[in-house]
Amino acid sequence: xxxxxxxxxxxxxxxxxxxxxxxxxxxxxxxVRRNAIVIFLCVEIMLNAVNIALVAFSRGLDxxxxxxxxxxxxxxxxxxxxxxxxxxxxxxxxxxxxxxxEINSLKG
Length: 108
What we know:
This protein is an all-alpha fold. Helix content is 71%, strand content 0%.
C-alpha cells in the first residue's frame, strides 16, 4: 500500500446503515407501486436487507446464529417467490392485468 493513503475500514455500522436503506427502499416500493411483480421484488429487497442485518449482528457478536437464520430466510424467500409468481401467472391469465388495484377480489 502506498504511503499516505487513508483506508477506511468497513464496520458493522456501515452494514446496518446499508440494511436500513435497503429496507426503506423496499418498504416504499411496496407502499407506492401498483404492479404485483414489482411489489414482490420490493419484498425480496426487504428480506435481503434483513439478511444483511442478521449477518452483521452475528459477526459483531462472534457467533454464527445469524448465518443460520439467513439460510432459513433465503429458503422461505425462495418458496415465497415460487408460490407468489405462480399465483400471479394464474391471476394474469384470468384478469389480464397485474395492477393490484384491479386485482382486489378473488371473484370471477
